Give the backbone structure.
Amino acid sequence: MHILVINGSPKGEKSNSYQLTKAFLEGIKQEAAGAEIRERAVCRMEIKPCLGCFLCWNRTPGKCCIGDDMEQLIQDLLWADITVWSFPLYYYTVPGSLKNLIDRQLPMLLPFMEETEGQAGNGGHPSRYDMSEKRTVVISTCGFYTAEGNYDGVCNLFDHLCGQGNYTKIFCGQGELFRVPELSSVTGDYLSSVEQAGREYAGGGISAQSRERLAQLLLPRETFEACADASWGIEKESIETGKNGDAKKVSDTLAFTKQMAALYRKESWPGRDIVLEMCYTDVEERYQIVMGKDGSHVCTDGTLTADTRIETPVAVWRSIAAGEIRGDEAMMQGLYRVKGDFKLMLKWDDYFGGSRPQAKREQETFAQKNTDMSILLIPWIVLWVAVSVSRQKGCLIGIAVCALVPLVFYRNKKTLYDVISGVLVPGFCIAMLIGISEKQMLPVSYLTFGVMWLASCFGERIPLTAHYSKNGYGGEKALQNPLFIKTNRILTMLWGILYLFTAVGSWFMMRSALSSLSGLINSVLPVLMGIFTVWFQRWYPARVARGK
Ligand SMILES: Cc1cc2nc3c(=O)[nH]c(=O)nc-3n(C[C@H](O)[C@H](O)[C@H](O)COP(=O)(O)O)c2cc1C
């Protein structure tokens, strides 16, 4: 399979539309491993405008009198089985340089008047070459909030070039979002859908389901437009129609803060308004974003009491927004400080990821399976409490619980530690049923449990608690957050150590009058430790954020 990509954006590889094209090609490559791809960027080619001399029809049939890169491009077009046209929408049609290229395809036509089957419009010229088996894909982004209703010019053009509807199209509004790293979760989902479309295309055709996904808006209209308007750094109200140069520029930091505010997700409103103060330390400017039930606004007079205050040099915050440095990493390095309520930082993506259409969020919620620490803990707690009361019955209950837990929690995602526990607990029960004393087995089980927690803390491993607490901090993404991992590593170690001590304590308790109560007594410390964990999870990251 020969694929020619014509990238018609003046931005070349940095083009928004080209991001979609790359994803589409990736999908094709996964399905058709032997696909050969040639890429041509119009911005790097010399393609002069057509002179309209018709010499390519009469004096030098099939050959243009202008000797530039178009000669090779025609060879590429003839070589390709599939041509992918990738370009931005400019004034409701293709960019001028691409239109030049299209005009310069004239040598590929014969001069005679002849209409072909399926051709749009009236009148036409037959092709000089057999193009009947060739396929066309058109991929484009535009700046408006939707592609719908804006591509009639492009569709008309390709209807004439390829035959009515005889091409595959992917048109996407809000194209400028593809260059905003902060929104990569939104655009990344879309690019995955484009990749899927590429796979389906190579396998026969894009499914209705994929088409539906590709037609969805990246952000709701009002969020997108507020963000886009703020990005120009010009006060909309200050522009008087008909006058030049009167537009009032707002400061860069204010424009930037307004963009941030526009990305606020009102559906994350926690039941009361939150005031986030952005304090740009190097330029000594500060603005307050009020995050309310119905949206957000920026307050410039600084009169409100801030819940959370971020003190940062502009460059640092810009680098974070541009994806050059992770926000959590910058915080760990002390590049910025957070004062006041730290909760907002822990749920940053929920507040500022940009609202996504309802249907999409519902799909995600449905698809996402969470882990649950109960799956890990219940078998162990049952073992320790039940066996310390009655060995025989306790062991049978322990085995039964291990068999039942997966059924009760079938909706949850299992972790390695759930599986290990599901094997170890019945193992201990069976060992005691066949005669090994609980005085030995219970302390060994505490020891094993503690070792399992400690072992997860060493090397590059993700500490055990992180596998469970990630659910409350954005899921898998939280595992890349060094502060989250460090907090969990400390907690996991403390829990591990607690159970090592518990092992020793129960060894002696099992040999004393308190033997039957050992399970209950050993549960008191974990309760206290649980309370400490809840407090520490908030306190420690907030302490780091304050620069301590
Ligand atoms: C000269 C010019 C004309 C444009 N015309 C339109 C337009 O008619 N409709 C639209 O939605 N966006 C329009 N845009 C926005 C671009 O289509 C949008 O920014 C696109 O994502 C750029 O894609 P690229 O990065 O692939 O070049 C225009 C941009 C420029 C520079």
The two ends are 59 Å apart (CA to CA). The chain is about 45% helix and 10% strand. The chain has a mean pLDDT of 90. Residues 482-509 form the longest helix (28 residues).
